[in-house]
């Protein structure tokens, strides 16, 4: 059964947020750091595409977006990708200390993953309510 246009487009906004975050830098020199900073380039300083987290999230949300536009209902997949992405990006954010800190791209990606998880969880809740009222 095909879903409405609203249901097809709902997961696209969090997916766009995730893609925007992945395309932004994930690591930067701490603006409050005083003293010398070693001249080193960490993966993620250019964009999140330099990291396995970013590539995997880009592929996952791209696939979810295409399938959502095709009318497939992927509530659990949205929830799993959102929670899994939030855990991976959250771990990445917590792992940086010292002269280098997470850049805005990591935070934007985290927000997008949390939004995707919320959309997936909300759609599961709505679907369960509909099946209970029908039965």
UniProtKB/TrEMBL annotation:
Q: TM segments?
A: 9-27, 51-70, 77-94, 106-126
Source superkingdom: Archaea
Keywords on record: Membrane, Transmembrane, Transmembrane helix
Q: This chain belongs to which protein, by name?
A: TIGR04206 family protein
The species is Haloferax litoreum
